[in-house]
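User: Just a sanity check before I run the rest of the batch. Below are the structure tokens for the first item. I only need the designed sequence back.
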């Protein structure tokens, strides 16, 4: 077995424990009487409607404007974009075309103390601002320059059948757009809803466009599905809506689970983790100790993917199914470490030395762990694609299930990836490192029989 330096165990274990503690409890400090959060922890998670309750609101066009179905779809797309950009993944959103109403239900913010539904819905009902910006972030034009956007199919030779978004510009917008595209040939022009980037098409640098894209129309071509093209068209139309949204009715939603139940689940999780730690150390000794450290790291990494510890991951709304996904993934992490420890014990029985048993046991267990985890990864990805913000099959399953099942798929996927990182990679590094200490180089401490 290739030895790993002894200090690596202590360095790795310390870093994992510090990371787990910071991601679970968070890091903050006080500037006078103001608390400033450096790293968000469990207390900063936005809990779903089922745990903490939320807001139900009905929007309608202001001034009793008779909105078309397309305009309602555009307004609905605006609200959905704002919720997703704010990390709200547990929501229900419907459009009632007969009465020109949009109904939305979403959870309270993580720092909400007054539980004021009027304040909570202000951000969603505000008029959206659509802008077109160059690569430097300068605004080239706004949504008032767009007369209409609609999804279509490319009929040009060589590209026939691909979906695109067609833009019809106003008279003034056509002139502005021509100048903007002329100045940005070969560059991307970002389309923003408020501060959320919707798309960043590149202006083709060819002879046809040498004076910019003229004629008052343009097309956004990309690797769109029909649903994606329709959604982008609705979002662009939303930035040029001829009406503002006003709140027709609103109210608070009571949680189905409640804060007390959440606290009880927290205590149950702590007790379960302690019992698992005792079992793993009693049964497998050194591999069991390493497994406990890896499990703490896995838990911390799963929570970090929810609280936006890493900038690449958006913040996330935690629901009861989401908690179930974390618990299931931790169970798989325990299983992965047990498989490894049992394989090491088998190698001792076949006569291997300490180093040989660790090397062969960790290698032989890898295939079984990968097979089991990859199955879960595939299922999780399917759940995210079907029930996520893209709503690929929401027409079949219904929009009301989107946030709930998406939460389960997301936390299960993040937990499984965390298991690969902590339970497979780092646990092996720590195990091979600690095996270099003379004081613990006893077969019985690694699962072998006492001599």
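Assistant: Here's the designed sequence for the first item:
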């Amino acid at each position: 077995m290739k030895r790993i330096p002894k200090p690596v165990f202590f360095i790795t274990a310390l870093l994992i424990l510090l990371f787990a503690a910071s991601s679970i409890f968070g890091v903050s400090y006080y500037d006078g009487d103001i608390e400033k959060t450096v790293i968000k922890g469990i207390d900063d998670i936005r809990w779903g409607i089922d745990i903490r309750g939320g807001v139900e609101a009905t929007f309608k066009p202001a001034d009793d404007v008779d909105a078309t179905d397309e305009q309602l779809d555009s307004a609905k797309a605006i609200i959905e974009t704002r919720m997703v950009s704010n990390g709200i993944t547990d929501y229900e959103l419907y459009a009632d075309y007969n009465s020109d109403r949009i109904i939305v239900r979403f959870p309270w913010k993580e720092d909400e103390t007054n539980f004021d539904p009027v304040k909570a819905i202000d951000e969603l009902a505000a008029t959206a601002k659509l802008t077109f910006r160059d690569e430097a972030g300068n605004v080239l034009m706004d949504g008032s320059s767009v007369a209409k956007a609609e999804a279509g199919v490319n009929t040009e030779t060589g590209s026939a059948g691909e979906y695109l978004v067609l833009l019809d510009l106003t008279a003034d917008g056509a002139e502005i757009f021509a100048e903007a595209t002329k100045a940005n040939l070969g560059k991307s022009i970002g389309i923003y809803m408020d501060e959320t980037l919707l798309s960043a098409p590149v202006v083709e640098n060819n002879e046809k466009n040498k004076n910019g894209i003229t004629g008052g129309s343009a097309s956004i071509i990309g690797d769109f599905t029909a649903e994606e093209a329709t959604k982008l068209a609705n979002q662009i139309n939303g930035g040029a809506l001829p009406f503002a949204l006003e709140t027709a009715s609103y109210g608070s939603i009571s949680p189905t689970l409640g804060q007390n139940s959440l606290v009880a689940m927290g205590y149950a999780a702590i007790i379960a983790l302690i019992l698992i730690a005792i079992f793993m150390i009693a049964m497998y000794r050194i591999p069991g100790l390493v497994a406990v450290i890896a499990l703490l790291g896995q838990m911390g990494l799963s929570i970090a993917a929810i609280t936006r510890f890493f900038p690449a991951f958006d913040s996330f709304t935690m629901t009861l199914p989401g908690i179930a996904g974390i618990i299931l993934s931790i169970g798989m992490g325990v299983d992965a470490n047990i498989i490894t420890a049992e394989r090491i014990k088998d190698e001792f029985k076949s006569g291997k030395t300490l180093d040989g048993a660790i090397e062969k046991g960790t290698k032989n267990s890898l295939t079984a762990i990968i097979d089991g985890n990859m199955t879960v990864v595939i299922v999780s990805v399917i759940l995210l694609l079907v029930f996520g913000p893209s709503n690929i099959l929401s027409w079949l399953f219904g929009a009301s299930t989107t946030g709930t099942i998406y939460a389960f798929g997301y936390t299960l996927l993040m937990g499984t990836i965390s298991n690969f990182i902590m339970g497979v990679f780092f646990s092996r590094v720590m195990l091979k490192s600690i095996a270099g200490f003379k004081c613990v180089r006893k077969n019985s401490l690694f699962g072998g029989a006492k001599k």
